[in-house]
Design goal:
5 helices; 11% helix; flat
């Protein structure tokens, strides 16, 4: 814009409201310190609205999934030779004590050869973090499911938490009313060998090391804070098998 003869150009406003621009909330854009900032905010100035690194209210940085979550090993407990492939989460928990978090955050399924489920064309009955995975042979056009394996996503704290297992304990035989491997009794008979608050319990048969959950017997108690009890009266046509137990405890540091 050309200057009118006889009139001096208006000097640049140095950070104060312009008399001819009283309606402006912020200094005139001719202020060089403000010319490149929204609303004329000077990043060097202190005061409300002038923090160039202020975060938007309610905005939180999302954690990096790689550092927040982790995956378990792959599990393949069943083959599709009978009614299908049943990778039931409760069975996997019982057979792999302390290796799967409760509850898992996500499930991933693939064939034992590494194919994704979508590549197989199989009809999948269930695939979730509550039940686990089920593929029924009766649902397939070819009459049989592929052989699948599963793994689960868990909080990173679960995977990084180290568990140390005690020795196996077998204080009772099922010759009386059953097999009673109670934690209180085991502590008294094995002082200092079991932590104060066990995290996990593992129970298997003495003869074949079969997990208690896979024997088909009715288990009365299976708890890391109580122990194990199998009562003969709860079984059909037989007595309890002979079981042994061990406990998963937080690993002690070198200084403990």
């Amino acid at each position: 814009m050309k200057n009118t003869p006889g009139l001096k150009p208006k000097p640049c406003n140095q950070g104060k409201p312009d008399k001819d621009n009283k309606s402006r909330k912020y200094p005139s854009p001719c202020n060089k310190a403000n010319s490149n900032n929204r609303h004329g905010c000077n990043p060097l100035a202190k005061g409300r609205g002038c923090n160039p690194i202020a975060k938007r209210p309610g905005c939180q940085q999302q954690p990096d999934p790689i550092n927040t979550y982790c995956w378990t090993d792959w599990f393949d407990r069943d083959d599709p030779t009978a009614t299908g492939d049943w990778e039931i989460l409760s069975d996997l928990h019982s057979e792999n004590v302390g290796k799967i978090c409760k509850p898992p955050l996500k499930i991933e399924v693939q064939t034992t050869s590494g194919l994704n489920v979508s590549e197989t064309g199989d009809v999948i009955a269930v695939a979730d973090t509550t039940t686990g995975f089920i593929c029924k042979n009766s649902d397939q056009k070819q009459g049989k499911c592929q052989d699948y394996r599963v793994r689960f996503m868990c909080p990173n704290a679960f995977c990084s938490h180290k568990v140390c297992w005690t020795n196996w304990f077998n204080r009772d035989r099922p010759s009386g009313i059953g097999d009673w491997e109670l934690l209180d009794n085991l502590r008294k008979e094995n002082p200092g060998e079991i932590c104060e608050i066990p995290l996990f319990i593992d129970a298997v048969t003495v003869d074949g090391k079969d997990p208690a959950s896979s024997t088909g017997q009715s288990i009365f108690i299976l708890s890391p804070t109580k122990g194990f009890v199998c009562r003969n009266r709860d079984q059909t046509g037989c007595k309890c098998r002979d079981y042994q137990v061990r406990f998963g405890c937080p690993c002690r540091s070198n200084g403990d």
